[in-house]
TrEMBL record:
Species for this entry: Rhizobium paknamense
Protein name: MoxR-like ATPase
Residue ranges annotated for the ChlI/MoxR AAA lid domain, each copy included: 263-328
SUPFAM superfamilies cross-referenced by the UniProt entry: P-loop containing nucleoside triphosphate hydrolases
GO terms for MF: hydrolase activity
Record keywords: Hydrolase
EC number: 3.6.3.-
């Protein structure tokens, strides 16, 4: 079985396995720390963590009150990251995110501009209810998410390392929301759908969160260690079989590729970023589950969070009550057959 490796990084096989095993242990500790605060929602925790471990941003979608904000705060604590939160509102301005120039005057009366950094200068940025802000403000996040720096008054400012945006979005049927543009959605490595908790988890929430003290997560990693794990993930070998499965899945979701069902239901499909997202997240998922190499199962498990926000249905498909999730599930079933 052919292996596709990333360029030589100086790690031999033994060192690679030792580093991976250490990363497995660290990730397991993060998981157990998060589970002290967030009950149930294993899939949500997993996918959000996978986005961060893969070096990307995640969009958490669900109705208010499902502990999306709490999850992000908890992850920030467990990963030892410096976190900021911005509550997006219709009157939020780009300068409220990026920062602003203020005029200073020294003792000789000389005036000069000084840049005051906005909340975007954090390692973990929580963009709460991102679709409640105007498109202009939403796009202020675009450059930072893609290029890891911002430009204000012609001056470039680099963002901290690592830099991750975890945004939450309310379902679009709710009042006062502006849908995110496709270009901005594509910047999110994964879309994580947050559903109502299972009965057992909801019982635990009622019992554990209505007393005098709330559980808090302690720092298990720090920014430096997280960057090491992110680098390691990029060095993990991916077999030809898994690469083929990624290409087959992504291409089958695009209209005009000879796939009758897709042509009928999909208006536009995922671009190459979807394949890149899968190449990273399948490795992260293998480590998350205690394995040293990704499998085709990882590709199928991540199909929904990677593809869901990168495709749109035709009007006819929507009129029939179909969802993007239905289409992806059908593509995965077909791939497994």
């Amino acid at each position: 079985m052919g292996m596709i490796n990333t360029p030589d990084t100086g790690l031999d096989g033994k060192a690679m396995i030792a580093a991976a095993e250490q990363a497995l242990a660290d990730i397991a500790t993060v998981r157990s720390e998060v589970s002290k605060v967030i009950f149930g929602q294993e899939k949500v925790v997993e996918n959000t963590l996978l986005a961060i471990l893969s070096g990307g941003h995640a969009l958490l979608v669900g109705v208010p009150g499902l502990a999306k904000t709490k999850l992000v705060t908890t992850l920030g604590s467990a990963l030892g990251l410096d976190a900021n939160r911005i509550q997006f509102t219709p009157d939020l301005m780009p300068s409220d995110i990026l920062g602003t120039e203020v005029m200073d005057q020294d003792e000789h009366g000389r005036r000069s501009f000084r840049f005051v950094k906005g909340p975007v200068f954090a390692q973990l940025l929580m963009a709460d209810e991102i679709n409640r802000a105007s498109p202009r403000t939403q796009s202020a996040l675009l450059q930072s998410m893609q290029e890891y720096h911002i430009t204000v008054a012609g001056q470039r400012y680099d963002l901290p390392q690592p830099f991750h945006v975890l945004a939450t979005q309310n379902p679009l049927e709710q009042e006062g929301t502006y849908p995110l543009p496709e270009a901005q959605l594509d910047r999110f490595l994964l879309q994580v759908d947050v559903d109502y908790p299972e009965l057992a988890a909801e019982r635990q929430i009622l019992l554990e969160t209505t007393g005098l003290s709330d559980a808090k997560a302690s720092a298990v990693l720090d920014a430096g260690r997280l960057i090491e794990i992110q680098r390691l993930i990029r060095q993990m070998p991916v077999s030809e079989k898994v690469v083929d499965a990624i290409l087959t899945l992504v291409r089958s979701a695009r209209p005009g590729q000879g796939h009758a069902e897709t042509d009928k239901h999909v208006a536009w499909g995922p671009g190459p970023r979807a394949g890149q997202a899968l190449m990273l997240t399948v490795r992260a998922r293998a480590l998350y589950e205690g394995r040293l190499a990704p499998s085709i199962d990882d590709v199928h498990a991540l199909a929904e969070p990677v593809l869901e926000h990168r495709m749109a249905l035709t009007f006819a498909a929507r009129a029939e009550g179909m969802t993007v999730r239905d289409v992806i599930a059908a593509l995965v079933r077909q791939a497994k057959a």
